[in-house]
Amino acid sequence: MFTLPTEMAQPVADFSQDTWWIWLIKAVFIVLFLILSVILALWVERRGLGRMQTRLGPNVTGFMGFGQAFADAIKLMIKEDFWLKGADRVIYFLAPVIAATCAFSIFAVMPFGPQVSMFGIETPLQLTDSSVAMLYVLAIAALGVYGLVLGGWAANSTYPLLGSVRSAAQVISYELGMGISLASVFLIAGTMSTSSLVDSQTSLWHVFIALPAFITYFISMVGEVNRLPFDLPEAEGELVAGHTTEYSSMKFAWFYLSEYINMINVSAVATVVFLGGWRAPWPLSAINDGMFNEGWWPMLWFIAKVWFFMFLMVWIRGTLLRMRYDHFMKLGWKVLIPVALGWLVAVAVIQGIGSFTDIDTQTILVILAAIFLVIFAVLWFVDGKKGDDGSSAPEEQPEFDAFAGGFPVPPMPGQTLPPSPRAKRAPAYSSTAKEAGSDE
Amino acid sequence: MTPVIDWAALAPAIIVMGAAVLGVIVEAFAPRGTRRPIQVTITFAALAAALVAVVWRWTEVQANGSQTVVGGQLIEDPFTLMAQGIVLVSGLLAAFVIADRTQTREGAFAASAAARPGSPEERELTRAGIDQTEVYPLVLFAVTGMMVFPAAGDLLTLFIALEVLSLPLYVLSAMARRKRLISQEAALKYFLLGAFSSAFFLMGISLLYGFSGSVRYSEVAAATTVTVGMDWMLIAGIALVLIGLLFKVGAVPFHSWTPDVYQGAPTPITGFMAAGTKVAAFGAMIRFLYVIAPGMEADLEVLLWTVIIATMIVGTVLGIVQKDIKRMLAYSSIAHAGFVLIAVTSFQETGIGATLFYLLAYGVATVGAFGVVTLVREKDAAGNITGEATSLESYAGLAKRKPGLAVAMLVFLLSFAGIPLTGGFVGKFTAFAAGIEGGAWPLVLIAVIASAATAYFYFRLVVLMFFTEPDDRTTVIASEGMTLVAIALAAVATIALGVVPGPVLELVGNAAVLLP
Amino acid sequence: MNPYTPLLLMIAIAAVVAVLGLVGTGFLGPKRYNRVKLENYECGVEATPNAGSAGRFPIKYYLTAMTFIIFDIEVVFLYPWAVSFERLGAFGLIAVLTFVFLITVPFVYEWRRGGLEWD
Amino acid sequence: MSLMNYVILAFILFAIGAAAVLTRRNSIIALMGVELMLNSANLSLVTFARMHGDITGQTLAFFVMVVAAAEVVIGLAIIVSIFRTRRSASLDAPNLLKN
Amino acid sequence: MNTSQAAAFPWLTALILVPLAAAIVLAFTKSLHRHAKAYGLAVSILVAIGAVIAFVTEFDTGSAGTVQLAETYSWMPTIGVSIAWGVTGMGAVMIALSVLLVPLVILTAESDRFLRPSEEAAGRRDAGYIAWVLALEAVMIAIFAAQDVFLFYVLFEAMLIPVYFLIGSYGGPNRKAAALKFLLYSLAGGLIMLVGVVAVYVAGPGGPEGFLIANLAGAVTGSQTAQMLMFLSFFIAFAVKAPMFPVHTWLADATEEAPAGTSALLVGVLDKVGTYGMIALCLPLFPGAASDAAMVIMILALISILWGGFVAIYSRDLMRLIAFTSVSHFGFMVMGIFSGSETAMTGAILYMVAHGVGTAALFLIVGYMAKRGGSQRIEDYGGWQRVTPVLAGGFLVAGLATLSLPGLSGFVPEFMVLVGTFSVSKIIGGLAVLGVILAALYILLPYQRVFTGPRPDIQVKDLGAAEKTVVGVLTAGMLALGFLPGPVIDLVQPVAEQSVAHFDDSSTASALTEGNLQ
């Protein structure tokens, strides 16, 4: 074998003084933080969506309807917890536990802030970190899928099963784009430790260097947590409620909760990886020699950034329609993965040429631009003839005869209906329809 | 830090693998109708070019000596090149059979392996004369694995090569045009047992690594003399790795896949894998045993002797009762594995040459024999030619129908039986000579009795072919030409190896140089 | 200090919370037996027998799973390389680019042959 | 905790996997058994790597993961195609090949 | 021995290649098929003439014990194999026997009921048969000329293929089973010999000519046990070939089903390869082991003599009967070889020739008869003396030669063997004499049943011209060997002398190896 570095670079954050009770405090804090955040998120989502849809949203219980979220939570807890007939009981029970455990655990490596003094002990605002912290995040996230899949499977019912299979396909499809886009950031930063990632963004956030990666990641992350426009596993119109259909009470609550925690998780990852983590945004960071980047302040910035992403997701939900499944898979496989891969290769090559040769950056960029132009031109032509090797190339179809057998028949795939005799009236009609639709 | 890569030394394997990758790209972009000609061209060109490259490297190595490549992961020595040469020769011969579509214009492979048998989609493709042309890149990938397998200089490369050679074969096994379910089940069995043995292989690697702290053969070998204690790890590691290799060569008790896979796989693939896999696996086994195990013959003797004796006996005894020619050849291959193992485990320099020669003779004859099998077909009541007629009875009167084919088959069978003036005889002779030289005369004695017994089932087939009248349920179809070329080349080569083996013996004798 | 001990602690706490929630709700909630309640939810239609175990999924799901496995492995290889990019140098870069190329070839193949179409 | 315990654990897992392959007749379970065996080998590789303070074992484990993945893919493909041809994934049911 | 000693013209190579090439040409030239017999006859006579010229001009009768007409070519130097031809007196007479019998067999090829079940089946069938016979002739000449152990082994095995096809393609109703039985017995024996061949090379001096008999003789090292094992591996193969009790059973089946010409060649010449091998290989290579095992082998030979005789008496099939008489005769030969007496050894070699002529005659004549009578079973015949007097006369002469009537070929060798054996062991010699009495029974009883008695009501012709020629030539041969055995004895006696010398060396040889061991 080659002589490889035997030890990876250690994370920047220094946990040397931590004791077991510090860990306990942090861990309990994380759990509480997440549960409260979810309740807040519910409220934000309902109110926000209401605003976007020009209605009020919950506004009766508590201050501005804030109590409604708590009420819902308590209601779920005291609902009857039933055990479905024919379910695989062990897995039926285990699935929500897995989902919830995985959702909670991811935050263990999220840095809320830099070193602070806690009961006299210097410790980072982060439960723990390691050189492969991001790998841990991805691993646990992937493990969380088991909750969904097993939940759907254990119920021994049609809709949940379909939902869970869809969700598995979806999560794994988007995980690839996400993983590859993250890899390009790791390449730039040279680390996978969360605290070191934040550290590497001291001068410049990654979002500015690696915008394509950020965009890929952002789309993937929405897909990853099954949010609109990618909420196909639960598409209530088709699948009732996906894998949660057969769950009640706390079992359902954990699924529900884990979904929202996962939103927070991916937002936190986006924050740490692309948005400088707990670092204060530019004008603030310049104030008083970086005062806002020390002590407990950064926790504020971190949470703010996470909520920025949370809000984005709510906003998207209020704006976009659910995608069709084939479009959705196409987006994942044919756009996100190639883009992420291409971006990764580009980053690697630029980095590589910069590091390992004497060519200066200016030249590289010019050459790259030329290459991209060529590729773009090639793709332009390749894309021209779509479909599988000509076999599905548009052939001269015989004109469709709707009354071939003496009675009206629908067109086969690939055939088009002849223009309706009433076609002339259609434009006027559709324009009115469009106006009517936009009113809603 | 950065290893120096001698690309020239890698050339043979890279040519084949590059062609395989190119084949995949062709599959992606070439229009359906043009794929087959392109793929066939690429395959033959790549194999021939690789053969040329091997010859070139041979002269280089003879002139400049052996070397390690990519920091020792691969070894380029005469042995490597000879084994690669044999793989390529078998592969090239097999490619002729694989590419042939016979007069029926239907190859041995499913029109579309993904289409359900009997589905309208499949009928459509069959009518259009479309083949599953992925076969060719897959074959090339398998050849790559086979070429790297004996060249591997460390256990990691060995493992990767094992998988590279196995995985395409699993897939290829499932692609028979007819009797698809049998084919798929054969593939499944092959796959599961293959993966199972890979796991043992891997555990063995892990133990050897645990023992020595390295996966490099030379370092493991060095550790055997230095490290004290932990001997169980070494022995268990070697034994487990051997299990993986013995599985690949079909030695008893790791043979149970052989008859089923030989029977179920498309016949050209059966020939290809019977020839190629054995060469590769025995090549790897020789390097592994001769580099790591010297000094431990005594520890391994019980294991190896048991395996060898069982292999020979099971191969012969079960071969006698077979009624299907492909199964019969499978058991014969098991018995042959036993014979080769005698040479391999002799731990003599002559054993290396003997193994190589035996494998060449066996590989050539095997490809030819399975080539013949592809041409004997069943006829249904309406006189339509259907699948291969693999029952032994189908060969009745072959000499009356197609004397040339029957004579070729006779040559292959004589070679299998080890009758003088065929390559098989010289192979057996050299193998047994190595065995006796290594002191394994009891094994040799059992081997000769076993080979007398194997002769029984070969000559039963000869009786059917030459002394029995043909019936009208079977027919012999004409090939497009390529299978005939393969059969003719194989027959000529088999006889040439028997009559004038001198030059080849000298070559393989020169190849018995192992660089640890 | 082992950095992984807190991780175990976190996971343990999370699991305990999750299990406690489920156990607690068993005490908190009412228990009213109703045969229909325990049936599968089928939108009011009579339940499909063996609904869950039929296992009739479109073949595409398997294909997606297989493709995913291959790409996931690619990602696994990319991470360590990305992190030690500088130390591995030009050789590592070329090796990984070759690797990515080799993975891309089957991806392109699958794409062209319609493996990524959901129709 | 001695590192040897990990090796022993690996052996146990390996044995469990092997038992699964040998005794369970469902091909998917058998496949899982094989995966378990491969991963137990990984575990022991990584343990040995730790023992020797050498990275080769970890590298090997990476390759094993690739191979395991490729094997799963091919195994699944074969099983699915059999399943499509005959609606069952049991190892017992395929019996066209006599033993 | 080296190439410089080689004859000016490579006679032996020519003698081997001509029939081989002729066989291949015949097999692949369709236009020749109709004239296959004439072609075969011409080739075989040409070979016979060539052999005569070669031996007359090049062979020095004075030094018949040394290898002459030698040629050596390198073949597989890596494993010490060369192509080495050369003959001693013994080889020369065996080759002469072969080249004599082959034209005779071809001459009356159509007088065989199996080969020619009906007249329509001629043409291609004849061509195949004659091609195989010619190929067989090539192998026979080659094997008696081989001076390299490996080459000998190769030919020993290669010989199976033509015989296998001669039985399997052209034999009687059970030919497939008989052919397979023949093949498997011979192959098993041959493969056991292969172990010995390999071991001999490993234990021998090695080198690029390590397989030459000349280089190996007296140079095979190894413990006494190893020597004995190697000797046995060779001996078993030869015992199968020269059918000795208890591995003789294949012979009766083969001859029963094979065409008469094939049987004649098989028993007349091919089986002699066994006894030839014992003399040419076993004795020089493993003198110690040979003399150690001599007594056991002689007892086995005795059993062969008696057993073969007894079974022959009770045989109902004439071909089987002749086969069993041969088992008995081979017993005499083996006994002579291992008796260690020069007289017996000379007798044994002479016996090989005499038996070849006599048995071939018997097989051929019975074949002519079976063609006419449509059966080989004794009970189907009776009184044929009156219908076919020439045939009956031929049978009687050949039979009498077989039972060693003085004046015919069998007498001298049998007498010599018995005398030699007596000098070694009175008991064995005495019991062997019983074989002579049995011989009278197994020849005269069938003669009585088949040829004597009332004239049967059948319409068959007596022997035709070709058949008469064959019987005439063979009878002449028997008479010649009976009255004038001198020239042949002169040829083989030096060989016997040398061979017996190995027994004399053996005590010292084994003492030497034992000494090495300690």
TrEMBL record, chain A:
E.C. designation(s): 7.1.1.-
Region (Disordered): 390-440
Residues spanning the membrane: 20-44, 90-113, 133-155, 176-198, 204-223, 260-278, 298-316, 336-357, 363-382
Top-tier EC class: translocase
Single GO cellular component term: plasma membrane
GO terms assigned for molecular function: NADH dehydrogenase activity; oxidoreductase activity, acting on NAD(P)H, quinone or similar compound as acceptor; quinone binding
Membrane topology type: Multi-pass membrane protein
Composition skew (Pro residues), residue ranges: 408-421
Keyword Protein biosynthesis: no
Compartment(s) of residence: Cell membrane; Membrane
This protein's UniProt keywords: Cell membrane, Membrane, NAD, Oxidoreductase, Quinone, Translocase, Transmembrane, Transmembrane helix, Ubiquinone
Quaternary assembly: NDH-1 is composed of 14 different subunits. Subunits NuoA, H, J, K, L, M, N constitute the membrane sector of the complex.
PANTHER family: NADH DEHYDROGENASE SUBUNIT 1, NADH-UBIQUINONE OXIDOREDUCTASE CHAIN 1
Family stated for the protein in its record: Belongs to the complex I subunit 1 family.
Role, per record: NDH-1 shuttles electrons from NADH, via FMN and iron-sulfur (Fe-S) centers, to quinones in the respiratory chain. The immediate electron acceptor for the enzyme in this species is believed to be ubiquinone. Couples the redox reaction to proton translocation (for every two electrons transferred, four hydrogen ions are translocated across the cytoplasmic membrane), and thus conserves the redox energy in a proton gradient. This subunit may bind ubiquinone.
UniProt-listed HAMAP family: NDH1_NuoH
Protein name listed in UniProt: NADH-quinone oxidoreductase subunit H
The species this protein was found in: Flaviflexus salsibiostraticola
UniProtKB/TrEMBL annotation, chain B:
Transmembrane segments: 6-26, 38-59, 79-99, 135-152, 158-176, 188-212, 232-257, 269-290, 302-321, 328-348, 354-376, 405-427, 439-459, 480-500
A Pfam family per the record: Proton_antipo_M
GO molecular function annotation: NADH dehydrogenase (quinone) (non-electrogenic) activity; NADH dehydrogenase (ubiquinone) activity; quinone binding
Catalytic activity: a quinone + NADH + 5 H(+)(in) = a quinol + NAD(+) + 4 H(+)(out)
Database matches in InterPro entries: NADH-Q_OxRdtase_suN/2, ND/Mrp_TM
Enzyme Commission numbers on file: 7.1.1.-
Domain NADH:quinone oxidoreductase/Mrp antiporter transmembrane, first and last residues per copy: 152-452
A biological process term (GO) from this entry: ATP synthesis coupled electron transport
Main location: membrane
Transmembrane listed as a keyword: yes
Membrane topology note: Multi-pass membrane protein
Gene Ontology cellular-component terms listed: endomembrane system; plasma membrane
Cell compartments where the protein resides: Cell membrane; Endomembrane system; Membrane
Cited HAMAP family: NDH1_NuoN_1
Known function: NDH-1 shuttles electrons from NADH, via FMN and iron-sulfur (Fe-S) centers, to quinones in the respiratory chain. The immediate electron acceptor for the enzyme in this species is believed to be a menaquinone. Couples the redox reaction to proton translocation (for every two electrons transferred, four hydrogen ions are translocated across the cytoplasmic membrane), and thus conserves the redox energy in a proton gradient.
Family affiliation: Belongs to the complex I subunit 2 family.
Subunit-level organization: NDH-1 is composed of 14 different subunits. Subunits NuoA, H, J, K, L, M, N constitute the membrane sector of the complex.
The protein's name in its UniProt record: NADH-quinone oxidoreductase subunit N
Encoding gene per record: nuoN
TrEMBL record, chain C:
Cell location: Cell membrane; Membrane
MF term (GO), any: NADH dehydrogenase (quinone) (non-electrogenic) activity
Topology in the lipid bilayer: Multi-pass membrane protein
Pfam family, any one: Oxidored_q4
Keyword Transmembrane found: yes
Top-rank taxon: Bacteria
Membrane-spanning intervals of the chain: 6-28, 61-82, 88-109
EC numbers on record: 7.1.1.-
The protein's enzyme class: translocase
GO cellular component labels: NADH dehydrogenase complex; plasma membrane
Keyword terms: Cell membrane, Membrane, NAD, Oxidoreductase, Quinone, Translocase, Transmembrane, Transmembrane helix, Transport
InterPro entries tied to this protein: NAD(P)H_OxRDtase_bac/plastid, NADH_UbQ/plastoQ_OxRdtase_su3, NDAH_ubi_oxred_su3_sf
Reaction catalysed by this enzyme: a quinone + NADH + 5 H(+)(in) = a quinol + NAD(+) + 4 H(+)(out)
Functional description taken from the UniProt entry: NDH-1 shuttles electrons from NADH, via FMN and iron-sulfur (Fe-S) centers, to quinones in the respiratory chain. The immediate electron acceptor for the enzyme in this species is believed to be a menaquinone. Couples the redox reaction to proton translocation (for every two electrons transferred, four hydrogen ions are translocated across the cytoplasmic membrane), and thus conserves the redox energy in a proton gradient.
Family membership: Belongs to the complex I subunit 3 family.
UniProt xrefs under NCBIfam families: PRK07928.1 (NF005922)
PANTHER family per record: NADH-QUINONE OXIDOREDUCTASE SUBUNIT A, NADH-UBIQUINONE OXIDOREDUCTASE CHAIN 3
HAMAP family: NDH1_NuoA (MF_01394)
Annotated protein name in UniProt: NADH-quinone oxidoreductase subunit A
Source organism: Flaviflexus salsibiostraticola
Automatic annotation (TrEMBL), chain E:
InterPro entries associated with the record: NADH_Q_OxRdtase_chainM/4, NADH_UbQ_OxRdtase, ND/Mrp_TM
Gene Ontology terms, MF aspect: NADH dehydrogenase (ubiquinone) activity; NADH dehydrogenase activity; ubiquinone binding
GO cellular component: endomembrane system; membrane
E.C. designation(s): 1.6.5.11
Domain NADH:quinone oxidoreductase/Mrp antiporter transmembrane residue range list: 146-435
TM region(s), chain numbering: 6-26, 38-59, 79-106, 127-144, 150-170, 182-204, 224-243, 264-287, 293-314, 321-338, 344-369, 390-412, 424-445
Membrane topology annotation: Multi-pass membrane protein
Subcellular location: Endomembrane system; Membrane
Name the record gives this protein: NADH-quinone oxidoreductase subunit M
